[in-house]
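step=encode ok
step=design start
structure_in=
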């Protein structure tokens, strides 16, 4: 829910409220139900509201608690806010609203930065302390909610989206060469804190940052699940069947938590295992008339563009109010351009277009949906995990890079212009450092930890947030419930790899879902027109890569671009993505942001 923004100055000047207002206005789609601004001396906060909990004006933000000397802005949802409220009331706190925002502010007053340890939910927040002048920024454990930052000698600005920061002005929009290296090698993932723009950073997930009035910063990373068998001693020695029961129990709790809302909650139903399991568990909870939504596209390149057969099966099985959303060719090109504009960072996955179109349709029916993102990263559902099962920790990085990286560092010299090329293999070194850290028993454990903490945050999670919030739609992801993630991290790797991946989840699902869903081939949101670029899509990419802005920027070696344009479907990355789309999307995004 919502979008937040703000500024803290360190140079003795008052905050630039007009700049915060501009940032706020850009996030109108994230919060179409209201707007607010607040300032006091060097600090200003802005907020765009999506009404999900406490629909009254008492839940409006920025939320000022004069008695406590705190003002806060918050994006997300605390699913356990009612329990926290009861605890705080028992400690003597009095409430003027029924919102989870007020619970967050009072929790911070009571427990300081340690309040985040008590939160069950997704969140990004900023709290300004009146008496100390400090600003505290926080982000949830899995980075479900974003927080972008821009800083110079005189001030810090922050916002829920990168385009909002640009609207504030004064941002260095040069290309960050390290981020570009990550984008071109690490499957388009740019880990926090970097973004593709040199002047924009992002608060890492599971981090609370305290900013003093003079600009001094202290970070506290408050969570990271151990990928070891000893992480949760109470689960030691479980049989495979008992692991299935434990996983299903945690997932039930995660789905139940995400039903908390003062508006109806639907489900994005692809027909795959993960979203189908959410529907089954909601039905088990007694949710009648559940709204479910599926999207399909025209076939292209011999590839089918919908999975309606599976989603229809699940909808019939559980009696949902199901909405099929077929998208014809005439909507695809405008949707693609709109999706690119909605991205806070360049995101190559064609899922973005699917989620953008799906969100547009769904937002006309409900304001909140549950979605199945995260299950593949948490329960080892992807193709690059099995090759890691038999290798040593020392071999983990080389195996991971071979299976997952789009290309090697050595091949970049023939793709990037010399001024953007780095001598050092920064992406490979990042992965090697991460995989070598303690806290993971096996090579596969280390890779799952990397993907949970980094790839998941800066690819699928970001994708879902950006595309749904472009239409004021809040997406909730039960597979990213932190207690479920902790359990999955401790689960023996062989149980996760069984049955072609996600074995323990599949076995748990057999108690609730038809075999045709559990045992179906792995699917995804297919958007064939982007996997197989031709016609107006090819012309769009060609114009982006050969136009004046691209020539002036000079990111890519022109002969390489010409080779891709001459054979747009022949050149693929390691995992089969279209190499031309990867280049074209980056340039399209930069141009959409006006940089």
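sequence_out=
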């Amino acid at each position: 829910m919502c979008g937040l923004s703000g500024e803290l100055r360190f140079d003795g000047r008052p905050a630039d409220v007009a700049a915060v207002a501009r940032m706020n206005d850009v996030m109108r789609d994230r919060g179409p139900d209201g707007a607010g601004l607040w300032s006091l001396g060097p600090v200003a906060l802005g907020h765009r509201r999506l009404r999900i909990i406490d629909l009254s004006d008492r839940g409006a933000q920025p939320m000022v608690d004069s008695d406590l000397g705190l003002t806060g802005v918050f994006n997300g949802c605390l699913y356990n806010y009612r329990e926290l409220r009861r605890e705080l009331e028992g400690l003597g706190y009095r409430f003027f609203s029924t919102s989870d925002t007020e619970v967050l502010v009072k929790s911070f007053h009571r427990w300081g930065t340690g309040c985040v340890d008590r939160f069950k939910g997704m969140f990004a927040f900023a709290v300004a302390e009146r008496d100390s002048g400090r600003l505290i920024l926080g982000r949830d454990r899995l980075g479900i909610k974003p927080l972008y930052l821009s800083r110079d000698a005189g001030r810090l600005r922050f916002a829920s989206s990168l385009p909002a920061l640009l609207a504030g002005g004064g941002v260095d929009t040069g290309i960050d060469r390290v981020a570009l290296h990550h984008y071109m090698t690490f499957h388009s993932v740019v880990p926090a804190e970097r973004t593709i723009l040199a002047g924009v950073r992002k608060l890492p997930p599971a981090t609370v940052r305290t900013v003093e009035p003079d600009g001094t910063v202290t970070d506290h990373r408050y969570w990271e699940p151990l990928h070891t068998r000893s992480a949760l001693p109470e689960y030691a020695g479980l049989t495979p069947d008992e692991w299935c029961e434990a996983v299903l129990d945690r997932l039930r709790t995660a789905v139940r938590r995400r039903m908390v809302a003062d508006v109806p909650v639907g489900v994005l139903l692809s027909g795959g295992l993960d979203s189908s399991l959410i529907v089954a568990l909601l039905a088990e909870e007694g949710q009648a008339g559940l709204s479910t939504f599926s999207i399909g596209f025209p076939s292209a390149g011999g590839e089918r563009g919908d999975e309606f057969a599976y989603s229809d099966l699940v909808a019939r099985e559980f009696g949902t109010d199901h909405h099929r959303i077929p998208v014809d060719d005439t909507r695809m090109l405008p949707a693609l351009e709109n999706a690119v504009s909605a991205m806070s960072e360049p995101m190559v996955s064609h899922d973005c277009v699917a989620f953008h179109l799906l969100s547009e349709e769904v937002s006309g029916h409900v304001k909140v949906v549950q979605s199945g993102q995260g299950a593949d990263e948490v329960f080892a559902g992807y193709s690059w995990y099995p090759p890691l099962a038999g290798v040593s920790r020392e071999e983990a990085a080389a195996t991971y890079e071979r299976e997952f990286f789009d290309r090697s560092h050595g091949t970049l010299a023939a793709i990037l212009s010399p001024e953007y090329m780095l001598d050092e293999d920064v992406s490979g070194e990042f992965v090697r450092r991460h995989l070598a850290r303690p806290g993971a028993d096996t090579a596969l454990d280390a890779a799952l930890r990397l993907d949970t903490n980094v790839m998941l945050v800066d690819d699928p999670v970001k994708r879902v947030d950006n595309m749904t919030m472009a239409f004021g739609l809040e997406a909730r992801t039960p597979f990213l419930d932190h207690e479920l993630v902790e359990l999955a991290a401790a689960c023996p790797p062989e149980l996760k790899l069984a049955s072609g991946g996600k074995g323990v989840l599949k076995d748990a699902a057999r108690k609730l879902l038809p075999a045709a869903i559990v045992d179906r081939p792995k699917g995804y949101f297919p958007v064939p027109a982007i996997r197989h670029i031709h016609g107006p899509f090819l012309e769009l990419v060609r114009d982006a890569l050969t136009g004046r802005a691209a020539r002036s920027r000079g990111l890519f070696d022109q002969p390489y671009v010409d080779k891709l344009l001459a054979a747009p479907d022949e050149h693929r990355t390691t995992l089969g993505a279209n190499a031309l789309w990867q280049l074209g999307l980056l340039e399209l995004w930069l141009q959409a942001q006006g940089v």
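step=design ok
step=annotate ok -> DSSP finds 24 helices and 17 strands in the chain.
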